[in-house]
């Protein structure tokens, strides 16, 4: 089984301790762990389960059911492509194909150099400017393959 460094273990334990008294705290705990560590390490599952008095299977089931939760550390930059119907009607499928080819990874994957993680997202609320892309929390509309490449080139210059 994967292990965590002592600092990450302490972080998970602190989060569980702070949130375990809330009603139905599992999702809130998992979101907080991902916010703190960037993903949900497999080694965090037993810590969360024990702290919330749940089975490991229950925690693992929630982590694997929701696509939002990452199972490995993300890249330096997160690229989210809208896959909702409005964006699909304006070319999101072709843009996703282009993005996968350009970055060399599928959805939920991270480039070998650790620079980019590609994620699907289901509606960014930018339907009038489809297809939409979010890079590191910054929204971009009417993104073509060429504009995608320019955005990626721009991000690649940043740490």
Structure overview:
There is one protein chain. With 159 residues, this protein is of the alpha+beta class. The protein has two domains: 6-65; 77-156, Glutaredoxin, CATH 3.40.30. The chain has seven helices and five strands, in the order ααααβααββββα. The chain has helices at 6-19, 26-37, 44-52, 56-65, 85-89, 92-103, 145-156, and strands at 77-82, 109-110, 116-121, 133-135, 138-140. A five-stranded mixed sheet has the order 2-3-1-4-5, with helices on one face. β2 (109-110) and β3 form a beta hairpin. α1 packs parallel to α3. It is elongated and about 50 Å long. The two termini are 31 Å apart. The model has no long low-confidence stretch (mean pLDDT 95).
Summarize the structure.
The chain is an alpha+beta fold and 159 residues long.
In total, how many beta strands? 5
Here the CATH topology of the largest domain equals Glutaredoxin
- CATH fourth-tier homologous superfamily of the largest domain: Glutaredoxin
Output the radius of gyration. 18 Å
Instruction: Please give the CATH class of the largest domain.
Output: Alpha Beta
CATH architecture of the largest domain: 3-Layer(aba) Sandwich
Report the total helices: 7
Strand arrangement, major sheet: 2-3-1-4-5
Give the low-pLDDT segments.
none
SSE pattern: HHHHEHHEEEEH
Class based on secondary structure composition and strand pairing: alpha+beta
Roughly how much helix do the residues carry, as a percent range? Answer: 40-55%
Shape descriptor reads elongated
Q: How many distinct folded domains?
A: 2
Mean pLDDT: 95
Question: What is the straight-line distance between the termini?
Answer: 31 Å
The major beta sheet can be summarized as:
5 strands, mixed
